[in-house]
Write a structure and sequence with these properties.
Shape: globular
Order of helices and strands: HHEHHEEH
CATH topology: Arc Repressor Mutant, subunit A
Oligomer: single chain
Strand content: 5-15%
CATH architecture: Orthogonal Bundle
Structural class: alpha+beta
Number of domains: 1
Distance between the termini: 38 Å
Number of strands: 3
């Protein structure tokens, strides 16, 4: 029985997503957006980080297809394009 592997492009895309999520702030953003949509202000207040820092991380994640952005008046709200990413983060070990 032969198992068919996804093509190389699929693995490259998956590796890119893992590299992007390899930053603690981005992992926290994914965990915080699990099952919800939040505006930039809510996200940076929750993280306790400067707005500019959070906006940079959100841009990287949005530009690489991890997040969706929706304008709501003057606010921009973010959500996960693939909710399974939050589930993946939950599976990561929490302590050594």
């Amino acid at each position: 029985m032969t198992v068919e592997m996804p093509n190389e492009a699929v693995f490259r895309q998956q590796a890119l997503i893992l590299r992007i999520l390899g930053h603690p702030v981005r992992l926290r953003i994914v965990a915080g957006l699990s099952g919800r949509c939040s505006c930039v202000k809510e996200i940076w207040e929750c993280l306790g980080l400067p707005q500019a820092v959070v906006s940079q991380h959100l841009k990287v994640m949005k530009d690489n297809g991890i997040l969706e952005a929706r304008r709501d008046g003057t606010r921009v709200c973010y959500s996960l394009r693939n909710p399974q990413l939050a589930e993946m983060v939950k599976l990561l070990p929490l302590d050594r």
